[in-house]
């Protein structure tokens, strides 16, 4: 009896033959569409206008932070007009901490401390109007 069980388990399992798949060639037109970029190159002025308009319409914190992540993800430093629009949006949605963090983002993006000081100087009237301090001013 034990021997019969062992012999039964030693038999190879019978499997149904695999269904053969028919491979169809991928349409060339679709392939070319997927591989090519649909976006035209954007000038710095167009980039600036796009983000000024975006921050002008921001209505909540999530949208503000998403826009800031996208704007700072590019290999350039956003123009002061974009930063001003982002600061106004941060105050409009009552997010003081994000307004302060915008200046930290600028500090990380610029090449040297002189450029950061130029941004601070140019944005000083907006900072005074909105009551926004930098991290350095808060910890001094």
TrEMBL record:
Location(s), subcellular: Mitochondrion inner membrane
Taxonomic source organism: Serendipita indica (strain DSM 11827)
Family assignment? Answer: Belongs to the cytochrome c oxidase subunit 5A family.
The record ties this protein, via InterPro entries, to:
Cyt_c_oxidase_su5A/6, Cyt_c_oxidase_su5A/6_sf
The GO molecular function terms of this record are: metal ion binding
Ordered alphabetically, the record's keywords are: Heme, Iron, Membrane, Metal-binding, Mitochondrion, Mitochondrion inner membrane, Transit peptide
Q: What does this protein do?
A: Component of the cytochrome c oxidase, the last enzyme in the mitochondrial electron transport chain which drives oxidative phosphorylation. The respiratory chain contains 3 multisubunit complexes succinate dehydrogenase (complex II, CII), ubiquinol-cytochrome c oxidoreductase (cytochrome b-c1 complex, complex III, CIII) and cytochrome c oxidase (complex IV, CIV), that cooperate to transfer electrons derived from NADH and succinate to molecular oxygen, creating an electrochemical gradient over the inner membrane that drives transmembrane transport and the ATP synthase.
UniProt cross-references to Gene3D superfamilies, sorted A to Z: Cytochrome c oxidase, subunit Va/VI
What membrane topology does the annotation report for this chain? Peripheral membrane protein
Summary of subunit composition and partner proteins: Component of the cytochrome c oxidase (complex IV, CIV), a multisubunit enzyme composed of a catalytic core of 3 subunits and several supernumerary subunits.
Name used for this protein in its record? Cytochrome c oxidase subunit 6, mitochondrial
